[in-house]
Design brief:
It comes from Mytilus edulis (Blue mussel). By secondary structure, the chain is α+β, with helices and mostly antiparallel strands. Among the domains are: 118 residues, no CATH class; 102 residues, Arc Repressor Mutant, subunit A (Orthogonal Bundle); 49 residues, no CATH class; 62 residues, no CATH class; 160 residues, no CATH class. It is built from 34 helices and 17 strands. A hairpin with a 2-residue loop joins strand 8 and strand 9. The chain is extended and about 160 Å long.
Length: 969
């Protein structure tokens, strides 16, 4: 309904208008303003000439005719002169030529309705002979028109008890006004007016009243009625009625107690009534009106009376016990059963107005929504009696109420049929559960005849509808994912073989296949997001017409390329839990201390002595959310086949990517599933066996260890033993590779084969062990190691004339610089490293800059071997394990020292320049292909590397390089 604003239109103002109005002959009409008021206002001007209709002169014609008729009966205002609106061609033509305009409120004063009213007010006319006569108008005969009139001035107003001489009193003449006045007085609880009405009806009292007083009474009662109606509509009134009935039942129940004279405070009853309305969800505006509640209670509890004690109102039963007992003995059965009939009629009306149809899911509040509240209240009172303190209904109440709804009909039926609109969740759930567990038609039909479940055909129809709806949704999505799963939750999966009724000899009863389950882990911070609003599609005939997507239903063949599984190498290392272990040990000592302090005669009933009770009492309460699980459609293929496992991986990967994008799929194999399923049962069995054998029967010593469980998850696989032949082959390959590199290097530089093949270049010392095991002497060792050195051998030079032991001058220079940079420069850098990083606080520095170090590792600035040093450095470690590259990286990224990739200027004698020179020439030596260096290059390189004596901070490094330089030169 559109909002309308109403404006009271005054009648003609006979006073002379202000100067802005056209009252004088010396003023002309401004046709651009309103022709009536001639004022400038914000109101819109209306002009018939600008209308879109064909005949624009109709508005001017009607106005000109009305003005002429107003002028004929002398009803025009004195300030309006028609001569100003007529230029000689007539009022209508003048208005049309001038495009006259007016305000709507000004035009309403001269419309046809006002003209008729003016003609009706014209009660005199001048006859032809010039004498005045009364205009006899047809009117109804009233009491006021009678010749004999009562002096109403002697009466006062029934409502205000006063009389105004300028206003006439009216007399109440109908019983309708009496009934309405009584209703208004009852709504308003006007005690003074109710006292006047108690003397009799208004007609008998010949009550007189002012019209404005009666209208004021009606409006005041209407506002109270509107306030009552705005408290929630029909449902709110039902809640108020139920709360009042429960309050009356509470009062009656208190009265039935022996040796108790109950007295109720209205403040307590009002608070109880308000709390009950709040629990039922009824809307309230402010607090409960205690006076209205008291009057309602007095109406429905006739044996109770109200008493005033100070500011408190008290309710108590009458002291006359005899009449009460006599009324109880003379109970009217007709009245009782009529009350039952009325109650049944009200509840049955609510039942017929309630509809509940299965839509494919069972919501959390589906049981309460399928049953009217009046029926729940009635069943709850029948089962447990009146109870105003309980704000919820038990499952028994809900089940009985749903069974009544399911078996109710509008009229008596001969056949046992149920409408879909009256299928309650309890009956549908019971039928589906029994069908899933037994698949027996006879059992479900028996329950259907008893009114406890839906029919077997209805279950098949629902099952087919669910299947078709889900398959259609799966085909649209392109993957199989049940609607119960949520978005944004960490999802895991399990694959296991399904063996249903394996002892059956027929293919109809047994099933051997594979099942895939998805589990979503819910936390208090993350509950997930509902994927879609599942709605059941109604399918006629109850047949399955849709199928699963081929990407899910078709298992493609697959084989393994190799039987040896490839296990990926992880970058992270296992972390210890020494802190948790220490805390657990301390908890055990606390339990022992509690037991030792408890004496046998001091032990009470709730004393925690046992280990399990003590730890259960001190275990913090954690709020665990149940996981969301779903079983995907089953496969007929066996779980042990390679094709089925690969297909399971693909299905799980697709589902997990759809549910939680970016997560790696986590799959629990059969061994893990079996372990989780059996671990609790095995633990209980072992605990009972341990108590029985060691403490009760005492057949086994208490110190004998418990046998290890044969669980696949905790089973240690047997290590593979490598044969001696494979060890020999691996060592031979290593020697061949090493000798080939030596032969290539000997072509350009000198070398000693005996030194090269020393035990430092091999996996194990040759003289002490063989393949990691103690080596025993053989005949070949005696001949090759003992006798062969005692004989003389000749060594001929190579044919090209180059001696193996000859080393040129350039190579000596290269080795000098290499010795300085590779062997001694790390010591110099370590002096600076120890100065910048205190070894005692290095652990905290690494923990503080762990994010920066992790980024360097991801950029491959820090190698995996160097990264393992950081992991181990969280526990006691040695700084000597840090190589030169790692120390330079830490100095460059964690300190303010500037280390460059290019060679610094000779004038730069800072700490960063010294490290930059070592870093630069070390990389140059490592990437050198010639292995030689001239004398000039050697002198320049050595001077650059040893240029660390310019500052006092590098004094220690200079002292280190000085003896080294002398020894090399």
């Amino acid at each position: 309904m559109s909002n309308k604003s109403f404006q009271l239109i005054d009648t003609f103002d006979e006073q002379v208008p202000t100067s802005s109005k056209i009252g004088g002959h010396d003023q002309n009409v401004d046709w651009f303003k309103c022709i009536f008021c001639q004022t400038d206002s914000l109101d819109t001007l209306q002009c018939p000439a600008s209308a879109r209709q064909n005949d624009t002169s109709a508005g001017y014609k009607t106005l000109s005719e009305n003005l002429e008729q107003f002028n004929e009966i002398n009803s025009l205002p004195s300030w309006l002169d028609l001569n100003k609106l007529n230029d000689g061609s007539g009022i209508q033509n003048t208005l049309i030529k001038s495009n006259a305009k007016w305000h709507k409120k000004c035009r309403l004063k001269f419309n046809t309705t006002e003209l008729k009213r003016a003609q009706k007010r014209q009660h005199r006319y001048i006859s032809d002979d010039g004498q005045a006569s009364l205009l006899q108008e047809a009117r109804k005969s009233t009491r006021l028109s009678l010749p004999c009139k009562i002096g109403l001035k002697d009466y006062v107003c029934f409502f205000c008890d006063s009389i105004e001489e300028d206003e006439m009193l009216r007399e109440a003449a109908t019983y309708g006004i009496d009934n309405r006045v009584r209703e208004c007085a009852q709504k308003l609880q006007d005690t003074a007016l109710l006292a006047k009405l108690s003397a009799g009806d208004l007609v008998a009292q010949e009550a007189k009243y002012h019209v404005k007083c009666l209208i004021y009474l009606y409006r005041k009662a209407s506002r109270v009625a509107n306030d009552d109606e705005s408290e929630g509509g029909t449902q709110s009134r039902i809640s108020h009625g139920i709360a009042l009935a429960e309050l009356v039942s509470f009062i009656e129940e208190s009265r039935s107690e022996d040796n108790v004279a109950p007295v109720f405070k209205m403040s307590d009853l009002s608070k109880m009534y308000g709390n009950r309305l709040e629990k039922m969800g009824a809307e309230q505006e402010g607090r409960v009106h205690s006076t209205r509640l008291k009057n309602r209670l007095l109406t429905y509890v006739p044996d109770i009376e109200a008493y005033k004690q100070g500011r408190e109102n008290l309710l108590a039963f009458k002291d006359d016990i005899g009449p009460a007992l006599r009324r109880a003995c003379e109970e009217d059965f007709d009245s009782n059963y009529m009350q039952i009939y009325k109650a049944v009629k009200i509840v049955r009306s609510d039942m017929m107005a309630t509809s509940s149809e299965f839509n494919g899911t069972f919501a959390a509040d589906c049981q309460e929504k399928s049953v009217p509240r009046s029926l729940l209240t009635l069943v709850n009172m029948l089962l447990y009696g009146p109870d105003i303190t309980t704000d919820s209904f038990s499952q028994e109440t809900l089940s009985i109420a749903q069974m009544l709804i399911f078996n109710s009909h509008k009229r008596i039926q001969k056949s046992n049929r149920h409408a879909k609109s009256r299928e309650t969740p309890s009956q549908m759930y019971l039928g589906i559960v029994i069908h899933c567990q037994t698949r027996k038609r006879g059992l479900i039909d028996k329950l259907y005849k008893l009114g406890l479940s839906v029919s077997y055909d209805r279950i098949l129809s629902v099952s087919a509808s669910l299947t078709n709806t889900l398959c259609k949704q799966y085909q649209e999505d392109g993957y199989v994912c049940p609607p119960s799963l949520r978005l944004g939750l960490f999802t895991t999966a399990a694959v296991d073989n399904i063996d249903h009724n394996p002892s059956s000899t027929t293919a109809k009863d047994s099933f051997h296949g594979t099942g895939i389950s998805l589990f979503q882990h819910v936390t208090t911070q993350m509950n997930g997001q509902q994927r879609l609003d599942f709605q059941l599609t109604s399918i006629q005939g109850g047949r399955v017409t849709e199928s699963l997507p081929d990407s899910y239903a078709v298992v493609k063949p697959a084989v393994l390329k190799t039987n040896v599984p490839v296990i990926p190498v992880t970058d992270s290392t296992c972390k210890g839990c020494t802190g948790d272990l220490h805390e657990a040990v301390q908890n055990e000592y606390r339990w022992l201390e509690t037991v030792s302090n408890s004496k046998e005669y001091d032990i009470e009933e709730r004393t925690l002595v046992s280990w399990g009770a003590y730890h259960a009492e001190h275990e913090p309460i954690k709020d665990f959310e149940p996981c969301v699980s779903a079983l995907l459609p089953l496969f007929e293929e066996e779980a042990k086949s390679v094709a089925m496992i690969k297909h399971s991986f693909d299905v799980i990967k697709t589902s997990v990517e759809a549910l939680n994008p970016g997560q790696n799929p986590d799959i629990a194999p059969t061994s893990v599933v079996d372990t989780i399923r059996k671990i609790e049962k095995i633990g209980k069995t072992q605990y009972e066996k341990y108590i029985e054998d060691r403490l009760i029967k005492r057949t086994v010593p208490i110190f004998e260890p418990i046998k290890k469980n044969a669980l696949a998850l905790f089973r240690t696989p047997h290590g593979k033993t490598v044969s001696a032949m494979k060890d020999k082959i691996s060592i031979l390959k290593s020697d061949v590779s090493l000798f080939s590199r030596l032969y290539i290097s000997c072509q350009t530089r000198g070398g000693d084969l005996e030194d090269f093949f020393a035990h430092e270049n091999n996996m194990h010392p040759q003289a002490l062990s063989q393949h990691g095991k103690m080596r025993l002497g053989t005949k070949s060792d005696l001949l090759s190691k003992c006798l062969e050195p005692l004989t003389t051998t000749t060594c001929d030079a190579p044919e090209n004339g180059v001696s193996v032991t000859s080393i040129v001058r350039e190579e000596i220079n290269f080795l000098r610089v290499a010795n300085l940079l590779i062997k001694h420069s790390p010591k110099a850098v370590r002096i600076l490293f120890d100065r910048e990083f205190n070894p005692s606080g290095l652990k905290s520095i690494f923990s503080k800059n762990w994010t920066k170090l992790d980024k360097l590792k991801k950029k491959h600035v820090i190698t995996q071997t160097q990264w393992s040093l950081f992991i181990s450095f969280r526990f006691p470690s040695r700084l000597s394990n840090f190589d030169l590259t790692l120390m330079v990286c830490l100095l460059r990224n964690l300190t303010k020292i500037t280390i460059q990739d290019q060679l610094p200027q000779p004038s730069d004698l800072s700490e960063g320049a010294a490290v930059s020179r070592i870093k630069f020439y070390r990389n140059q030596i490592a990437h050198s292909d010639s292995g030689a260096m001239s004398d000039s290059e050697f002198s320049k390189t050595f001077d650059e590397v040893s240029m660390v004596r310019g500052t006092q901070k590098l004094k220690d490094i200079y002292k280190l390089f000085k003896p080294i330089a002398k020894s090399i030169i």
